[in-house]
Amino acid sequence: MKLDTKALRYLTKDDWRVLTAVETGSRNHEVVPTSLIGSISGSKGGLQRCISTLAKANLIAKVKNAKYDGYRLTYGGLDYLALHAHQKQATIYSVGNQIGVGKESDIFVVADPAGRQLVLKIHRLGRISFRTVKSNRDYLRKRSSASWMYMSRLAAVKEFTFMKALWAQGLPVPEAVAQNRHTIVMALVDAFPLRQISEVPDPARLYAELMEMILRLAGLGLIHGDFNEFNILIKEEREGETEVPATDWTDAEQQQQQQQQNPPIKLVPILIDFPQMVSIDHPNADFYFDRDVSCIKRFFERRFHFRSDEPGPHFAEAKAQLRVGGDVKRLDVEVEASGFSRKMARELEAYMQDVGVDGDHQDVTNEEGEGGGGDDGVSVESGPEELEDEDEDEDALDETTSGTIREEVTFAGIRNVPDYHMP
């Protein structure tokens, strides 16, 4: 499902009312009756014209062989509703290039009215896993909320909520800007996915920082659940960099002075992708914790030929750290209190377990140095747009690339990375 914004500027107020009516009707209907669309939107004489406009833009779709005349909302329609909301809230003014595509999300560079570049992440749960679930009807029938769009909303709400909470605690994550429906707007990070980096000056230091990050999350009551090279960005920083003034020194003396005044590049890890994050009190918390640790150990040994002499960290150590002090801040508890309920968490976790989704490894079109994960040749299969007739009466909502650059990165020194320009 590509994001095509060409028709966005041409939709009238009546078109938006009808599109919103289809979304509202989708809470109780997989296929929303045309009569109900007219009733909700308040549209009279112009209803068919609006429906025709929306259908031509692939924002709604007529289902073949339906028992009654009606339409369903497509992911394109949901995209437009989210973008329209972001536009009205002055969060997004323009949409730029696609910089990443994951198994179940798309990543774009966008800009706000002031020209600040941001990142738009669109969750598309069901894109890859749809055929798997389609062959297992029991998965859909046993759920009270089987809509892919509903699950995408849950993923966006969870990721945004955790991102805000982690940012407030000073953890190295992108700044969360806004969330609407299945989309998140966050700060653009000038960094590269760890998986694209072929060499670092000090693997031991970076390894220690990543393990410390895992323990720090656990100390706040959280386990990432997909802590690996796909979901870690590496940012270059030079602290206190100064220019050497012109003197009569020799080149060697000037170079030595430059090195003394300019400290070496510091690599700062940035953590992304939070829909699979769980509480440290989760029944399988030890499994997820150990898996996060093992993923980093294996990657550093394979890529950088580095093996730590230190054992662990171990889950028992992380659990004990959480018990220290009576004023320990529990982000897992805070997030639940902020609106992402246990019911939502259970539904999203069940989805990820049943369809085999562990995070959203992304294929990055790295145009600004901003990553978002990567993938090993993930292919995009049919999405929910191909629902057949037997899917029409399933449970509905119960609540409201471009090309890929595969260059490796050697720190210090980034090669073959074109500048990004907003169109």
TrEMBL record:
<dbReference type="InterPro" id="IPR000687">
    <property type="entry name" value="RIO_kinase"/>
</dbReference>
<protein>
    <recommendedName>
        <fullName>Serine/threonine-protein kinase RIO2</fullName>
        <ecNumber>2.7.11.1</ecNumber>
    </recommendedName>
</protein>
<dbReference type="InterPro" id="IPR030484">
    <property type="entry name" value="Rio2"/>
</dbReference>
<keyword id="KW-0418">Kinase</keyword>
<feature type="region of interest" description="Disordered">
    <location>
        <begin position="356"/>
        <end position="423"/>
    </location>
</feature>
<keyword id="KW-0723">Serine/threonine-protein kinase</keyword>
<dbReference type="InterPro" id="IPR036390">
    <property type="entry name" value="WH_DNA-bd_sf"/>
</dbReference>
<comment type="similarity">
    <text>Belongs to the protein kinase superfamily. RIO-type Ser/Thr kinase family.</text>
</comment>
<dbReference type="InterPro" id="IPR011009">
    <property type="entry name" value="Kinase-like_dom_sf"/>
</dbReference>
<dbReference type="Pfam" id="PF09202">
    <property type="entry name" value="Rio2_N"/>
</dbReference>
<feature type="domain" description="RIO kinase">
    <location>
        <begin position="64"/>
        <end position="326"/>
    </location>
</feature>
<dbReference type="InterPro" id="IPR018935">
    <property type="entry name" value="RIO_kinase_CS"/>
</dbReference>
<dbReference type="InterPro" id="IPR018934">
    <property type="entry name" value="RIO_dom"/>
</dbReference>
<dbReference type="InterPro" id="IPR015285">
    <property type="entry name" value="RIO2_wHTH_N"/>
</dbReference>
<dbReference type="GO" id="GO:0005524">
    <property type="term" value="F:ATP binding"/>
</dbReference>
<dbReference type="Pfam" id="PF01163">
    <property type="entry name" value="RIO1"/>
</dbReference>
<keyword id="KW-0479">Metal-binding</keyword>
<keyword id="KW-0547">Nucleotide-binding</keyword>
<dbReference type="GO" id="GO:0005634">
    <property type="term" value="C:nucleus"/>
</dbReference>
<keyword id="KW-0067">ATP-binding</keyword>
<dbReference type="GO" id="GO:0030688">
    <property type="term" value="C:preribosome, small subunit precursor"/>
</dbReference>
<feature type="compositionally biased region" description="Acidic residues">
    <location>
        <begin position="383"/>
        <end position="398"/>
    </location>
</feature>
<keyword id="KW-0460">Magnesium</keyword>
<dbReference type="GO" id="GO:0005829">
    <property type="term" value="C:cytosol"/>
</dbReference>
<keyword id="KW-0808">Transferase</keyword>
<dbReference type="GO" id="GO:0030490">
    <property type="term" value="P:maturation of SSU-rRNA"/>
</dbReference>
<dbReference type="GO" id="GO:0046872">
    <property type="term" value="F:metal ion binding"/>
</dbReference>
<feature type="region of interest" description="Disordered">
    <location>
        <begin position="243"/>
        <end position="262"/>
    </location>
</feature>
<dbReference type="InterPro" id="IPR036388">
    <property type="entry name" value="WH-like_DNA-bd_sf"/>
</dbReference>
<dbReference type="GO" id="GO:0004674">
    <property type="term" value="F:protein serine/threonine kinase activity"/>
</dbReference>
